[in-house]
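<context>
A single protein, sequence plus fold
<entry> Chain with its tokenised backbone below
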Amino acid sequence: MKTLVTIFTFICIGLSAGAQTIEADKQHIDEPIEVVKEFLTAYMIGDHQTFTELIHPDVIWIQPGDNRISGIKRSKSELLQMGAKMSEISARTLRLTDVKYFAAHGNTVVCILHWNAAQPSGVVLDIDNVDMYTVENGKIIMAKIFSEEIAEENAFWGK
């Protein structure tokens, strides 16, 4: 968790000039925050249509680690294939259970997400990530994911 806090602190320092939380000023929410919030809400409730509509066709998605899902995805199609693989590996148990924070600067949004999943073998994933999204014209064009504990992710997703 200390590593995650350090990463998040570093990102927030870089964004601090324009960063604001949703709770701090709901009347002045940037469009990028609304796009990311809608994207994550759609994922949480299983609204696949809204979720996919908010992803740019040429999205760049940087997934950390050294495992079956890690690496750079260079299109919506590759990202959705990664999502299908995650669903398969987790026996469809992967859940975004909490969004703890939002901050924005320009078209960049940073948030802390909590994920849970369990494989039939008993291997469990219970982890926070810091996600950094770039939004243009109402679509997510780039995402960079930072894991709280990459060894736990690598063990869960496997080689």
